[in-house]
Amino acid sequence: MIRNWLIDVEFDQYLLGGVPSMVSPNSTLTDPIWCRRVPCAIWHDVTILAPWDLYKETGDKAILSRQYKSMTIWMRVFPRGKVSLAHLWHPTVFQLGGATDAGMVFNMFLIQSLDLMVQISVILDKTAEQEFYVKDCQAAREEFQAEFVTANGRLVSDSQASHALAICLDMLTPSQRNRAGERLVELVRKNEFKISTGFAGTPYVCAALATTGNIQVAYAMLLEKKCPSWLYPVTMGTTTLWERWDSMHPDGSINSGNMKTSFNHYAYGAIAKFLYEKVAGLQQLEPGWTKFRIAPQIGADFESASAGHESWYGLITFSWETKVMDGGKEEIFLEPTIPNDTRAEIVLPQDDGELRQEVGSERWNLRSTFIRNHNWPVTALPPK
C-alpha cells in the first residue's frame, strides 16, 4: 500500500514542479491555501524517509531504486540559502513550526535527508551521486554548526525539542552531545517531567534521554500525568491520542484555540517506538530484520513487558519479567521466539553490567541476575 502511495507522491511532484503536495493523491487542488506550491521541511522529506523505512523493514533495494528519482528531485528543488548558508534551507521560506527556532529544526531534518541520500546512493552503487551528497551533507553540517551551535557547544535554541533532535539526528560532536544530554535532563526536570515538544520533537525526546544515559528521566517523562504529558489524556478518559497536548482542559471543556482540534491524531503516538525499543527492548540491526536486538532497559518500577513484530521472515515475539531474589538482587526471565533465517543479539542486565549473546532461530528461555538501579523516582528541579 505504501509503495503505491509513493508512486502517487512522485506523480504529484511532477504536477507541482518537483515539490510534493500536502496530501497524496492531491485532493487539495481546489483549496486556495493548501493547493499552493510551498516546499515544506519534514513533511516533504517523506519522499526520502518513507522509502528508507520501507527498505529497512523489508530489505528490498528495489524500493529505493524505484523512488530514487523522486528523492533527487526533492533534494534539487527545495530553496537553499545564499552565500554563507548556501547548503541550508533558505531562511525566508515559510515552515510549519513551534517554539523552537524553526530554521534549526528544519535544517536538522535536511541534514538527515542528505545523510540518507549518501547511504541510499551507496546501496544502489551510484558512485557519482554518493560523492555529490557526501560533499553536500558535510557542507550543510559545517554551516549548521556555525549558525546554530556556539563555540562553547551550546545550542542557540534552548528547548527540549532542539536538544532531542540534535542528539538523535547526530548533529553534534561527542563533547557537544554530552553537554546536550545534560542540558536536556535539566530542561525536563525543571519542567517537572512535562513535555514541551511538538510534532517534530516528540518522537525523539525520550530516545534522546535514553541514548545519553538518562533512562530513568525518560521513564519519568513517559509516566507523567500532569498536562502536557502522554498520560494526561488517559486521566481524562480518552482512548485516542489528541492533536494537542491540551485539546481538552482539566474541567472537560474543549481547547479550540485559533483552529479546530482533532481527538484522533497519530503524531504524539510516535512514543510507541520508544516503548518497543527501550521498555520492551526490540531494536532492528539489519534491513529486513535479518538481525535484531532484544535489550530491555530496566528502570522505573517496570517488572515485565512483552512485544511482537511481524517481520519479513515471520513473527518476532518475546516477553520478559523480573523477580526479586534474596539479598536484594533481581532475576530477569526472557522468552523470545526468533523466526527462521534470522539472528538475535540478546542483551540482559547482569550484576552491575550486562550479558550479551547471539542466538538463532528457535524459542529460547534465558535468564540473568542483576542489581536494579534504585535511583527512582527521579526528582524535579526548581524552575529557576
Tally the beta strands: 9
Structural class, from secondary structure content? alpha+beta
What's the CATH topology name of the largest domain? Glycosyltransferase
Which consecutive residue ranges, at least 5 long each, have pLDDT under 50? none
Mean pLDDT level: 93
| Secondary-structure element string | HHHHHHHHHHHEEEEEEEEE
Determine the number of helices (DSSP H or I, runs of at least 4 residues).
11
GO biological process, one term: carbohydrate metabolic process
Pfam families: Bac_rhamnosid6H, Bac_rhamnosid_C
Domain Alpha-L-rhamnosidase C-terminal: 281-360
Keywords: Hydrolase
Detail the topology: elements first, then pairings:
Elements: H1 2-15, H2 46-58, H3 61-77, H4 102-123, H5 127-148, H6 160-168, H7 174-190, H8 205-211, H9 215-223, H10 232-235, H11 272-280, E1 282-284, E2 291-294, E3 304-311, E4 314-324, E5 330-338, E6 343-350, E7 353-359, E8 362-363, E9 366-370
Parallel strand pairs: 2-6
Antiparallel strand pairs: 1-2, 3-4, 4-5, 5-8, 5-9, 6-7
EC number: 3.2.1.40
Protein name: alpha-L-rhamnosidase
GO biological process, one term: carbohydrate metabolic process
